[in-house]
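Input:
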Amino acid sequence: MAPTTLLIVESLETLFGHHASQKSQNCCSQGRHSKFFHVDRPEIVEITGFRLGRAYHETCVLKENKSGRCTKEGAVVSASKLKTNAKTPETPLQPVDIGSVFGNKPIQRSKEIPEKRKRTVIEDHSDEDFEATLQQLDEAPVTKKSKVVEKSTSKKGKTDSPTKKEKMKSPAKEEKSKPALHLKMRKHLQKSQPGWNEEKDKRIKSQLKELDSNSNKTSSTPKSNKKMKAETTIVKETPKKKSSKDDDDDDPDVIDSPAFDALEKRKEKAENYRKFLASRRDGGAKNPGSKPVPEGAPGCLTGLTIVVTGVLESLHREEAEGLVKKYGGKAPKAVSKNTSYLLAGDDAGPSKLSKAKDLNVPMLSEDDFLKLIATRPAGQGLSSPAAKKAPTTPRSAHKAAASRKAEPEPPSKPITVSSPPKKKSPEPKKIDLKPQQSSSTAAPIRKAEPISVKMEVAEGNDQAQLPWVDKYKPTSLKQVIGMHGDRSIAKKLVYWLKSWYDNRGKKLAKPSPWSTNDDGAFFKAALLSGPPGIGKTTTAHLAAKELGYDLVEMNASDTRSKRLLHEHVMELLSSQSLSSYAHGSAQIEGGRKRVLVMDEVDGMAGNEDRGGIQELIAMIKTSKIPVVCICNDRQHPKIRSLSNYCYDLKFTKPKIEQVRGAMMSICFKEGLSLKPEALDEIIMGANQDVRQVLHHLSMLASGKKSLSTESAKLEASKSKKDLKLGPWDVVKKVFSAEEHKGMSIHDKTGLFFQDYSFGPLFVQENYPCVVPQAAKGNAIKTLDLLGRTAHCMSQTDLIEKVIRSQNAWSLLPVEAVFASVVPGQLMEGFISSQIVFPSWLGKNSRTNKMDRLLQELQTHMRLKISGSKRAVNLDYLPYVLNSIVGPLKRSGADGVSEAIRAMESYDLMREDLDSLLEVAQWPHKPDIMAGIEGKVKAAFTRAYNKEAHMTPYAAGQVKKGRSKDTADDLEALDGDEDGLAGEEDDEEQSQDPSLDAMIKVKKESKKTASSSSSSGATAAASRKKTGAPAATRGRGRGGRKKAAE
Amino acid sequence: MSLWVDKYRPNTLAKLDFHLEQGERLQKMVTKGNFPHLLIYGPPGAGKKTRVSALLRELYGPGVEKLRMEHQNFTTPSNKKIEVMTVASNYHIEVNPNDAGIYDRIVIQEMIKNIAQAQQLDIGGQREFKVVILTEVDKLTKDAQHALRRTMEKYMTTCRLILCANSTSKIIAPLQSRCLAIRVPAPSQDDIIKVLQMVSKKEGITLPADFAIRLAERSERNLRRALLMLEACKVQQYPFSVKQEIVEPDWEVYLRETGQKMVSEQSPKALLEVRGRIYELLSHCIAPEMIIKKLLKEILKNCDGQLKAEVTSMAAYYEHRLCLGSKVIFHIEAFVAKFMAIYKRFLEDSFANMM
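Output:
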C-alpha cells in the first residue's frame, strides 16, 4: 500500500512543480504505473485535475496520446505543458478513448469483494516489506541533496493551482488514504480488465512493490525521462522494465511468487525479533554505572556508525547510543554496510550478529568501546570507515550515484510532524528510517517500541524536543525509581496482576487489614496511592505492559459519571481489544488479558462524575478484569469507601539517594554537569517529586550547563514546591521567629491561606502559649502583646462574619493580615508548649447541644412558666431541679412521690430530668445526685415509670424500638398489670436468679405502687396517646435492670 | 405543686401587683376595643408574659387559658425540615420563631400569614381578630423582621400581633412604628418586697423585713428570681434568720469566681485558665453579654476611679464586637487579655508608688 501512496504523493508534487520534471520522468520510467493510471483515468479525472494531468502525462509517455500534444522526445517535460494539462482537465480527456485502451468488455467487480478484503490484510503487512525495500535503497547523506532538488524544481514550479496546493500541503493525509486509494485503483483495474482477476493479487503486489522502489529511488533524479529509464534498468534487473516499455501487456508472474515467499519469511523473522525485543524490552545494563565512562575528545567518533546490541555491562543501550551520538557518531538500530562497529553485549540480537558477520563488521565489547572513546583523536573524518567499506560493498557505485540524487526528505519531514496522531506509529518509523543507513534485513526491528523510536527522533535531531519527563520515562519496571527490590510495590502489583485471573476461581478470605504480607489475592482491584510525581501511573502502565495485558485507562480527562462508567465498562467487558490486530501480529488468540486503570480516582468529584466512585465500587465487585485505581490522597473520604475493596498499595516518596542516582545519569546524558550536593538540594526542594526534579533539571539545562551547590540551593529554594502545610505547621510558622527570617508579608499571608477556616482557630487557641521575643521576659510587656494579639483575633472574627454573611470573599486577605501576619509579628518567638487543637469546635457543639436541651425543657414547661429559654436557664433551672431532687435527698425513698409530683407539675419527663442534670452541672461542683442512694434513685425511676404521666405535648418522639412492648402494655392497661409485672419479674428471675432478694423487694414496692396508681394510670392512659405507655413501659424495664445492678 | 413563682402568678389585669397604672390602661384599651399591635418589652422577670396572658384573658375570657401545644412543620427552600412548637388556644397562638434558628423567616412567612389570612366566621360574641404572640422578637433575624412588616399591615383586621422582647434596640424601626410599644420596667425593690411579703403570707410563712430586703437586692429587680430564691431559702432553712445565706445559682458563682481569677493573677497561664472557664459558661448557654457584664462587675470592685472608666469602656467595646461577630470567645478573650495587661500595669504602678 505504502508504495502507492508514495507514488501519489510524489505525483502530487509533480503537479505542483516542485519536482515536476523528475517526477514526470519517474512516472514515465515505469510502464507499469502508467498502466495503472490508464486504468484509473476515467474516475480520477473527476477527482482532481492533477490526476488527470498525471494520467495524461503518462499517456504521453506511452505514446498513446491521441491528441499528440505532448511529445516524448524532450528530455524534460516542460512545466508549462503540465500546467495547461492540470488547468484544463477536460481537454486531454476527450481524445482518449477508453475502449481503445482497455477494450470494450463489460465491467465486473461485485463478485470479488470478499477476496479484496483478504488482500488488504496481506497488503497491510507489505508495509514492512516496503520499509525493507526502502531501506535498501535509502542513501545516507540525503539532506544535502534534497536542497539541490528543491532548487532545481523551484524554477519550474509554477504549475501550482490553488486546489492542488492544498493537497500538496497535506500529503500526509493523502498518505493516510493510501489503502483506500489502493483499493480503488484495484477496483478500477478489475472493472476494466476482468480477465485479470486470477493473478491480479500477486501481480498488483509485485507491481506496487516495484513501483515503490523505483519511485523511491528515481523520484529524486533531476534527469531526463530516457536517462531515468535507462538507469532503472541498470539498477534493477526486474522484468518489469521491459513491460513498462511494452505497454500493458506484461506478465508479472515471473518474479512474483518467489519474492512473495521471501517476503513472508522475512516478516516472520521480524516478528520473532520483535518478540524477542519485547521480551527484553529495555536495553538495561547488568550493572549500571559499574564502569567509569571516559571523557573522550569531542567528536572523536565522528563518521563512525556503531550499532549497539544486547545487554551491556555498565551502560544502558540508550546510554551507549547516547555516547556514540555525543561524540559525533551515528547509532542506528540495525547493522548495514555502513556500520563501522557492532557494540555487542550479552544476548545480542542473533540477526544483528549474523548480519555483522556477513558484512565483516568488526565487533566491539563494552570495554573496547570505552577505550575507543578514550583513545580516538578528536574529529576524525569519515574516511576510515568509508574507505574500508567502499570496496566491500558491491553496490557502492549505485550508492554513490544515489547519493548524488536528491531525496525528497525535507518536505516529507514536516509531513510526518503535521500528521494526525492516529497514524503515529508507522510515521515516526518512517522518519527515523531515513537518516539511517542500514540494510533491509534489520528494518522491522525498528518497530520495537514507540518510545525508543521517539527518543531516536529527538536525539537524531540533536535537540531535546521531548520534555525530559517523557524522554526519560521509564520503559521497564526496573527503571522506575525505587522499584528495584523484590518486595517493591511494583513487584507486588505485577504479581497481583499476574495471578488475578487465577485467583478469581478460588474462594479467598478477606485478609485482615493489618496483615503485612498480603498478596492481595482476595481483592479484585488494586489501589495505588501516593504523592504525585513518583511513578504511580507509570508503574501501572509498565506492569500491564510487562505482563502483556492490554490497558484501558480512564483518567480525570474522561467524564466518569455513574452512567458513563457503567456503559464504558460494559463495553469493555463485552468487547475485544483491537490492539493485537493493530500491531500486525498474526496471532490473535481469543483476546488478550486486559486491565482497567482508573487514574486519579480522587479527582472523581463534582457534578461531572457524580456517583462515579459508587459505580466504580459496584464495578469492582462484578469485574471480570483487574482494576487498578490510582489516587493521591488515600485518606479522602471518598477513597476510603473505595479502599475497602482494593488491594492497598501505598507508594512512598523515594529516598534522595535513589532519585539522585537516576538524575545524575540523566544529567550526564544531557551534558548537564551538576554536583551531587546541588542535585540533592533540588531534589529536596521538589520534595522528592521525580517529575518535578526532571522539570527543574531540564529548565536548568536550557540555561547554563553547570551549577554550583550554592546556586542550586538558591534555585531549590526559589523553586521550592509549594507544600501543603497542616494547620499545626502553620501555627508553628506563624509564631516562630526563626521562620520569620526571610519571610515576606506575602509569605505570612500565605500561611493563612493554607486553610483559612481552620488557621484562625489554631492561632487563637495557641497564641497564649507563645513566648514573645519582643517582651524579653517582661510580664507586663507579654500581657500587653497578648492583649493586642487577642484584639487582632477579635478583629479576625468580625471580618470573618462579614465575609460569611455577605459573601465578601475579597476581604480574605484582610482577614489574613489580622489572623496570621499581625499576631505573628506581635508574638514572634517560640511556642512553649504543645500546639493544641482548637477547643472552640468541641465547645461550640457542646453549646449547641445544651441549647437544644434547654429548648426542649422550655417547651415542656412552657405551659406552666412564663420565661423564655434564657430565663429557664438562668433562673428556673436550679430551683426546679432542687424541687425534684431535694425531696429525694431529704427523705430518701419517701420523697419519691413528692419528687414525681414536682416533675408532673412542670410537665417534665424522665429524660428531662437527665437534661436538667446535665445543664445544671458545673465543674468543680459535686454531682447533684451524689447524695442520693442508688436504691432511692431506682425507686424513683420505678415509681415514675409505674404511672402514666400526662403531658400537654406529644410524647411520641421519645424513643424508637419499643413497639414490641406495645401489645403487652395495652393488655396491662386493661387492668392486668399486676399479673403481667409478675410475669416479667419471673422472667428476670430466671435470667438472673442470684438477684432474688432485690427483685422481691422491687416486686413488692412495685405492686403497691401499681395498685395505688393503677386506676389513675388507666384513666390517664385513656386520655393519652398510645405511644406514651409504650415508652413508659420500656423505660420501666430498663429501670428495673438498673436497680438490679 | 408548682413553684411559688408560678403558683401565685396573677391571671387578670386587675390582680397585678405593680405597674398598676399601666394595667389599668391596658384594660381600658381592651374595653374600648381599640387594640393595636403591641410591642411589650422589658427586662426579664418584670412580668411581660404575665401581662400578656392577663390581657388575653381580658380579651377572650377564661377560654384562652385552655392551651394546647402543637408541633408545626415547615420546609425551607433548601428542603430542610424544621419543627416549631406552638402554644395555642382557640383565640390565640404563641410561637417563638427563634426556635427555627436562622430559618425564622420561614416561620414568619408561612405560619403567621396562614393564621392571619383566615377570616373569623362567627363574629358575634367574639373578637373579630385573633392574636399572635411572638416571643423573643429581638432575637429575630433581620430577614424575619422585614418579612413581618407587610403582614402586620395587611392583615390588621383579622390578626393582631403581640411582640415580646427584652429590648427594642434590636427591633427594626419599621416594626417599632407599627406597634404600640409598652415598656414593662423591672419592679422596684419595694414592689418586690411587697410581692414577697404577699406570697409569704399566702404560704403562711413569716418573712423578716430585713431578709426580704436582702432577697430583693440579690434578685437584681427580677421578681421571678426573687420568688425562686425565697422558695429555695424556705426549703433550705425555715424559719428564716437574718444572716441566712441566700442560695445563688451556680452559674453566677462560677462567673464571679472567674472574675476573681482575672483580678488575682495576670499571666498567659491565667488567661488560658479564664478562657477555659468562659468556654464552660458559654457551653452552659449563659448569654455572652451576661458574662461580660458580670465579669466587669466583679472586676470593678478592684479598680480605682480612672481604671474603672477605662475598663468599662473596654468592656462595652468588646461587648459590642461580640454582637457583631460570630465566635463569642474571641471577643471575650480579647477583653480579658486587655484587662489583664492594663491591670498588671496598674498594679505595678501602684506598687511602685507605694514604695
